[in-house]
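Input chain follows. Return structure tokens only.
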Amino acid sequence: MDRPKKQKKAMREQGLHILNQSLQAQGYPARSVRYNAGAAALLETALLKGEGRLSENATLVVNTGKYSGRSPKDKRIMSEPSTQAEIWWEGNRAMGPSKFGTLKADMLAYLENRDIEVQDLVCGADPVHAVNIRLIAAVTWHALFLRHILRRPSQAELQAYVPDFTIINLPGFLAGRERHGTLSETVVALSFGQKLVLITGTEYSGENKKSAFTILNHLYPSRGIRPMHCSAKTIRLSQQSEPDIWRAVHSFGTVLENVVTDNKSQTRLSAAIDGSLDAVAFKTDRVRGIEIPCNGPADARPYLDPYETWQAKPAFKQAKTKLRSRIEPKLLEMGLSFPLSKVWPVRRIEGERT
């Protein structure tokens, strides 16, 4: 007698998104999916998963391991008729459709038993030419990092959000040289026809950011637009020389990537001994007096997005208690020598700008 086949458990999905744009509707399997979680919720989950540690400024400190920078030799662009003549193939490596298809299928199979973060974001300052970028991330802090870097749609915009391009980033999935036609276990493969980026084998968050900007670099010139993006220097950053950037870097929820810390989890922003690079992502509204069109009026609010998980005053005490009861014991086990109450930015969360 044949054993009855086990039925697959239904995918658990939560968070603000359009049903017909859900991962399930698109045929992307996962154990659970959380859409557009706010910074506080992402920080909590990253800590509970052990993806990083909390500094005394309540920033998230992470280390990307083997890859502390981008891997340009592992970039691939799928060769397809729609864009074949538009790509500079002397400077870009091609990936055939069959290899790309195999890589995609294998990555989706890998997704099936995992908990996934989805961030629906916007890349580009001009709303007429902005591109909707969806990140599907197996690593929670990747979602937090890109959420800081790109523009965050309003709650109303999320209720009508349709991704133009999707980035799937699975650092734990290792590509196969023969099976996927790669040089190593790491690959960043882009298909303009499928509007899809596949990233494997690296935890370096800059691959997400660079993939989003690569899409603009391809789309904008034909529209008569020269794409560019700016960044703030953090190497040897001091409070005296650049107080506003220093304050933003040391704010709650900022992500510090490959940053050297001392035994008190105090940050020292400088090139690491092994030559890896610092990377920092913070919300632009942490910088006083800033006016950045790519983030729009929503970023003028004092601290949290209007739909942030812990934004309401009545819920603040409960949220604070929840954070301490769930996370503080874990952090103490990891060597945290001070209570979270010392670093929790009460006044900023309640809306008073400091």
